[in-house]
Amino acid sequence: MSEVAVKPLVTARARLRLARLVPYLLLQVLIVIACILVLRLLQPSDPDDFALSEFTQLEDGVTRPVTLPHFTNSRYSLADPPLYTGSFTFRTADAAAWSVFLPRFSNAVEVAVNDVVILDSRRDATANRPDRNTPEIAPIPSALLRDGANTFTLRLFVWGPLKGFLDTVYVGPDESLRGAYETRMLLFVTLPVVFSAWQSILAVILAIMWLMRRHEPVYGVLAIAMVLGVIQAFLPPPVPPAHPSRLAAVLLASAPIESALIVVFAVLFFGWRWPRYGTLLFAPGLSVFAVGLVAGQPLPRILFLLLGIPTVGICLLLMAGVTATAVVRRQDAASLTLGCAVTIVLACWGHDMLSVFEILPNERTFVSRLSYSAMLVAIGAGLTWRFARALNQVDSFAGQLIARVREAEDRLKASFAREEERARAAALANERTRLMRDLHDGLGGQLVSIVALSERGADGRPIADAARAALKDLRLVIDSMDDIGGDLMLALGSWRERAAAQLRPHDIALDWHVTTPQGLPLHPELRPWHVIQIVRILDEAVTNAVKHAKARRITVTIEMLGGAPQDQRGVISIADDGQGFALPIDGAGNGEATGASQTARGLRNMKSRAGRCGATLELDSSPSGTSVRLQLPQRFPDSDAAEG
Amino acid sequence: MTERDGAPAAITILLVEDDAPTCWRLQDALVKAEYEVRTAGTLGEARQALNARAPRVLLTDLRLPDGHGIELIRETRRRFPDTEIMVISALGDEESVISAITVGATGYLLKDAFPTDIATTVRELVAGHSPISASIARFIVRRTQTTAEPPPGPALNTARLTPREIDILWGIAKGFSYAEIASHLGLSRQTVPGHIKNIYRKLEVHTRSEAVFEAVQQGLIKL
Question: Which chain B residues are closer than 8 Å to A501 by Cβ?
């Protein structure tokens, strides 16, 4: 392909990408605006009638009037905390119980009314989390309250590196304050716990998925990220001055690792290759980890703030980039959902940063954690969507497979039937060929000789003999077609009857010796044509004895050689007490009597028949008698040896 | 009916054969052996002859111009239980012989048998020895072996045969003589013919049931 052709293609692709990116970015802008609006609108409203914002602050020996909300300097010591002093007016006529309500402070407060401490937030583990926005409420014992002016003192404990913050304080009837407190509790304490519980369940599910599908590390990565998140949520934060174990400290500072893991997840989820220097993303998180394990507080906290939080931001930006690319490339629901969720988290992170740097005044509500949960919902939805889609694919695949298998089965059946039909036809043709050859060998020749004898006007005797031989042969062929189940003895049984009937008019006795009750070994491979050959050999031997040897007694011996059933061989011997005959010498065509040449031909036939069946034939003739010994093969050959 | 002191001429034979030369041949052999032979060429003639007098022995061909020998055998068996019945067969093939056995025949006679053999067979039959050939025995024992699908050929119920009878049939099928079978099985040689007669009786289908008769007829139509 030439470059000229490539260029428009590339431009077209770029245009398509742009066409997809612009609406997506517009959507993200809308989402950011929506986030800002929601954060503004959902800002919990506080009972302003009971606000107490005019205070005198004593910090580092300096006293000055301040108006709440107020930031103080960051510090790392709990000694001599900033002291806020104010006053409120109480009327005894208001019989209702009064409370102090602190919507937001960081990091901890000790509240005293008329110099009696009524609240120390350091005992509340949840309140020690700067990221949770935990409110506090404390009832003021009625005995403490004086009619008229009451003093209100508040010590703000700050542990760096963040600045201390104290939002407006509310003092008034409990019922008026309780509602606002409950709202804040729900939003900033209960909801995160619910989300964390969700996260832990998701972590278990993902871990199981990863265990069952090791080749998909995406689930494992996400599971680890979730586990870290859950540990952060449920590990009780230390209450200064008590120092937590170093491991707990670093686990609490694991957010950068968690966010890097989420980036890894996104890359793997969209089926991209993990970039070569991608591991560097873990460097800030791991260094916070390492420093935390080596050095004690407050170094990890400082490092977390300096390295961790920006890393989280970088990761979020990377995520936004990854999801945006995925949306442009894939245009699917999963990437779009994830992209919107990332934008929400990013917006919330930006909000928190603005608040940390006091660009957003009068406010310190951290929403990153909460919005992170929104991303988890998106991820959970995305994975569920993917899982359901995979199940659907499996279903349809299974359906297709069943249909295919059925189709293949049908085809196979048809071809099998065809093959069977072909095999049957071939077997039939084979049988017909053999039958024809057998009839040609015996019956045909005999009938022809009857015709010839009749035409020559021969007397009855030779004709009768030939006809009888023809009948005998016909019976042999019919008999041999019967299924004898590989037991040659069953064929020999019929042959004995026929031979005895043949010999009876000649006054020749037929002795029958079977050395074992079974007779001959079973040959499952025995076919009708084997039987015909063997019976013809035996017939030939008997005929020779009758016609040429002038025997008075023929002895048939059936025995088995070999001990073990697998190498047993059957032997059939036919011996007569006739005068014997000279065994033919090849090429001895010296005009002997017809009988001798007939005998010679008969012997040749016998040998060739034996050879075709894989049997061996031994002949021994002497003036005191002839013996034919037919040794059967261990296995009859499948194909006719003479055919090849 | 039994006149053991008289000449063999007292034994009457009804020979039913439509092929004249074959009929003459068999008749000659039997007359020479001093049997009293009546012949019939058709089923109708055979029935007339039966009505006139019950023969001691019935020898019948199966294919007759006006019907089937099986019917004749069945009728004779029912009307004259003492008459011995044999089938005359050209080939001694199992199909026709077994069909005849199931309606009451005891064995068969080959049409080309030597005259002496013909006489001997009839004599033994009258003496109560039912002849059985190796191929018939083979056919029966092959049917006693259980196979998945019914084998081809006429229906044969071998369920009533005892293991001993089946052993005897195996011996005959393998060509052993009665004496050899008796010694293998530890029997007396004289009891073997009795066993064979029993085998024939057990294979006979009692034609009182029309359904069975129909089945036999169906089997014959396939001939």
Answer: 113-114, 117
- CB-based contact, A492 to chain B, within 8 Å: yes
- A208 in the same domain as A120: no
Kindly report, residue by residue over A195-245, the tens digit of the pLDDT.
Answer: 888 888 888 988 998 898 888 888 888 888 888 888 888 877 766 656 666
| Rounded Cα gap, residues B157 and B143, in angstroms | 8
Chain A residues in contact with B182 by the CB 8 A cut-off are none
Average pLDDT over residues A434-459: 82
| Mean pLDDT, residues B74-102 | 86
Domain that holds residue A217: 196-398
- Each domain of chain B, given as residue ranges in start order, spans 8-129, 135-221
Task: Check CB contact under 8 Å for A512 and B177.
Answer: yes
Query: What's the gap in Å between the CA of A385 and the closest CA on chain B?
Result: 56
- Is residue A232 domain-shared with residue A254, that is, in the same domain? yes
Do A327 and A261 share a domain, yes or no?
yes
C-alpha span between A236 and A231 (Å, rounded): 9
CA distances, A587 to each of A369, A544, A591, A596, A611 (Å):
115, 21, 11, 14, 21
Residues A407 and A285: their CA atoms lie apart, in Å, by 58
Closest Cα partner for A324 from A20, A92, A46, A16? A20
Query: A437 at the B interface (CB within 8 A)?
Result: no
A residues 443-482 closer than 8 Å to B (CB): 467-468, 471, 474-475, 478-479, 482
Q: A205 Cβ partners below 8 Å, 6+ apart?
A: none
Q: Is residue A578 part of a domain?
A: yes
Class of residue A619 by CB neighbours under 10 A (exposed 0-12, middle 13-18, buried 19+): middle
- Is residue A519 domain-shared with residue A644, that is, in the same domain? yes
CATH superfamily ID and name for B8-129: Response regulator (3.40.50.2300)
- Burial-class residue A628 by CB neighbours within 10 Å (0-12, 13-18, 19+): buried
B166 touches chain A (CB under 8 A): no
CB A120 within 8 A of CB A50: no
Task: State how far the Cα of A23 lies from the Cα of B8, in Å rounded to an integer.
Answer: 124
pTM of the model: 0.54
Tokens representing residue A616 in the block: 């061996």
CATH number at residue A488: 3.30.565.10
Distance from CA of A589 to the nearest CA of B (A): 38
**Is B173 part of the contact surface with chain A (CB cutoff 8 Å)?**
yes
Which chain B positions have a beta carbon within 8 Å of A489's beta carbon? 173-175
The token pair that represents A111 in the structure block? 């509240």
Q: What's the pLDDT at A543?
A: 85
Which range in A11-15, A438-442, A605-609 is most confidently predicted, on average pLDDT?
A605-609
Give the model confidence (pLDDT) of A367-408 as tens digits: 888 888 777 777 877 787 888 888 898 889 989 999 999 999
Asked if B135 and A479 come within 8 Å (Cβ–Cβ), the reply is yes
Residues A538-554: b if buried by 16+ CB within 10 A, e if exposed: bbbbbbbbbbbbebeeb
User: DSSP labels for B57-90?
Assistant: EEEEESEETTEEHHHHHHHHHHH-TT-EEEEEES
Nearest CA in chain B to A482: B139
The pairing of strands B67-68 and A169-173 is unpaired
How far is residue B81 from each of residues A22, B76, B87, B105, B207, measured CA to CA in Å? 111, 7, 16, 11, 13
Residues of chain A with Cβ-Cβ distance to B184 below 8 Å are 517
List the single residue in A467, A471, A497 with the smallest CB-CB distance to B133: A497
- Of the candidates A430, A422, A335, which has an alpha carbon nearest to the alpha carbon of residue A385? A335
Separation between Cα atoms, residue A460 and residue A467, nearest integer Å = 10
CATH 1.10.10.10 assigned to B135-221 = yes
Residue A493 to residue B172, Cβ atoms within 8 A = yes
B93: nearest CB among A471, A478, A485: A478
